[in-house]
## 1
Amino acid sequence: MIDPTRSDPTRSSHYATGPAGASALTPSSAVAPHARRPLAAVLRVLLAAAAATGVALKISLSADLPRALSDFSVQAGAAFALCTLWSAYRIGSGRRPVSPRITGALLLYVLAAAALHHTHLAPGTGSSPVTGKVADQLLHTVTPLGAVLDWLLLTVPRQYRLRHTWQWLAYPVLYLLVALLRGALLAPGTPGRYPWPLLNTATHGYPAALFHALLALLALSLLAAPLLAIDQVRPAPPRPGYRISRTGIGPLKYSNPATPTEETPGQPWSSGKEDQG
């Protein structure tokens, strides 16, 4: 009679106990180290530099510093640059990636800022046409395209959740409330009183301005829905340093060219019984 408390490598890992059961039930992400990806880190540093340069040019072109700092595209670009730089450090050093809850939110924000700019819903840039166009291209074209490519080519799919799409709206809701409150506190006729013309209560009135704010939140949630859907069906990018074991040998393993990849003798998954069959 077989002792059910003993771990048998020939039995299913679902019923295994002891060290063998713990090894079988532990996810590979908990035991396999994250590979260092220096090329991806360099690309993210360049992307962060592009976003930071666009933000710096935007601020330098504005004669009103508080107005420039209250711009949604400036705030989204600055947050995206900092997060991308931190993500470059983590992926270059082999650490766990930044939470998709954060990276997904910033991806949504830079895409929303680009949509606002290209649909001419946002106010124009400063007085220098050449520098202003460079800033707009960096913030509203280079940064969103780079963010999308980074998401599709350098991140693991199926990380976004439905609850994330609602959490991503927290900052836009706070931003719209602060924008309306700031406009109410400033004197009429103050330059840059409202970040967007559609929020101007002096022109449209408070009911219309609130309605426009709700439409903006609805549009943002509609933009978040495709991101969630695409993330569930897109293929996984190639992960260097990992390989799948032969049938019956074991789970996902980390392959280091400097060390042998054969299974360690004496482990339950390399007892030799599978090769004999």
Note: The chain has twelve helices and two strands.
## 2
Amino acid sequence: MLPVPPSTDPSLLYRYRDAACATDALVVAIAELDLLTEIACSPGSVTELALRLGVAERPLDVIVTLLRALGVVEPGPIVKCTGLGRDHLVRGSEFFLRPYFATLATRPQVRALLDVLRHDRPSAWTGAATSKAWVDAMEGEAFAAEFTAAMDCRGTYLAPALAMVLDLSRSERVLDIAGGSGIYACALVDRNPGLHATVLERAPMDRVTVRHVSERGFSGRVAVLCGDMFEDAYPLGHDVHLLSNVLHDWDEAAVRKLLSKSAAALPVGGRLVIHDAWLNADKSGPLEVAEYSVFLMFTTVGRCYAVSELSSWLEALGFGPIVHVPTAAYRSAVVATKLGK
């Protein structure tokens, strides 16, 4: 059974967890890179700035997105300082705040984030030197169970919110790709009596999924299939594919591969539902998503993507129209229909 949705909104609590690395990123930008001074002296694209600073483009792009959302650099492909940035974060100003931020520069998380910025390798999941990266740690059943419990408790709030805004009344079967505990599949079938679901998860995660689905009483309508979402063909016979909180863990090449696999497996008229935290078109916010993107950049090879980025990739694969639907806690769903040739 699924719990009755709460009458309260936990979005601020979600934000405190999801923004855990954002302050450290700001310290790196100001105290370590003196980034706003660099931008003020010579505005440029993220690619140009990364080359000049000797850092990796993906993590720098995430930090620049955070700076846009904070209002210290302008929106647009050429990174320029705003008045707020020039007044407080550019060397030579009487109100220059770099010494204030430098008092935090020795924090271990700041040093670890600086390493990610330089080498574009995700840090250990816990930040401890002896811990494995998230994707490697998931190969152990104990960590897989612990991580899944964390994502499952988040899903008990987010999954019913997603189910509320999706019209799946005419759908027959949904494939929940890398569906974790199966909480989203359970919420969708609970909302739609005629719907069945399959959760695709790799070993040993699939055993954890079976246990969660069974404990919720959905074993009769939610099947679990062991498979690798990157290597194995997606099973046919599903008219809806769901990717919930998946794409943000992966780089652009991996994201586009996953989208293309759904395009190949879905029937004409089938729908792809991608539930995540999305940046706006010019990657200037929302601030909550820009903060969360830093956490993802630090712990995975991914980041938060803009709806405009995703839409262009989906359209190239033959999807449309593409609809953007808010859900809860600054998450939303992008729904795309596979068109015929």
Note: The mean pLDDT is 94.
## 3
Amino acid sequence: MKLYGFNNLTKSLSFNIYDICYAKTLREQKEYIEYIDEQYNSERLTQILTRVTEIIGANILNISKQDYDPQGASVNVLIAEGAMSSDEIDPSCNQGKLYNNLERETIHAHLDKSHVTVHTYPEHHPEKAISTFRVDIDVSTCGQISPLNALDYLIDSFDSDIIIIDYRVRGFTRDLKGKKLFIDHEIKSIQDYIDKETLKKYDAVDMNVFQSNTFHTKMIIKEIDLNNYLFNRDAEELSMKKRLEIKDNLRKEMIEIFNGMNIYQEEG
């Protein structure tokens, strides 16, 4: 496809990843949150987003990151489709070179048409035995590069029980004759860009609006291996009745998150 001038299409990929854990006692809940904060701190998230940038073939202009108190972290990466000479890059951009001695309480990113961001949200409630960890990721690109190429890597980078993905192509570009093009690639479903072996592990549902180049996919894990969901516990230590009860509660939690509504919530 030959275009006139720069490809002005903006391709935006946004998705939430949820990790579910059974942590019954307050101590277990506290230790789970501490584990998540250590496992997915801003340094680790920066490594993930840097790899995403490499996969989609973009160049880093600026990285900012922050760990929050009491929990959670954020990383923002400003990217460009092509390499830029040093005199073209704004002096405030660090080009991915982060220093541990930065004397700042908070760091904020430049956000442009092309950027990658991640925010984490560990969550628990003292009266509930199930804790959740949510990751929000946004990859927005313009030009020839596509955020869809990083989907498999991002899914594999987290323990994903529920995945909710939105992809939209916005704006238009023109061909050599001036005809407007509102999309520059074939796509019927986001699932087309996810590894087939990964898809086998999930039940997936599509809700697409083809007229506006908007695509939506929701995925929920099929099988629950209890040992992957117990924090500091072994499933063999529990009675069969207790194991079935925990698996039932885990599945109910996942179904509510997957559907975005309270289904099994007790009244009052």
Note: Confidence is low (pLDDT under 50) at residues 99-112.
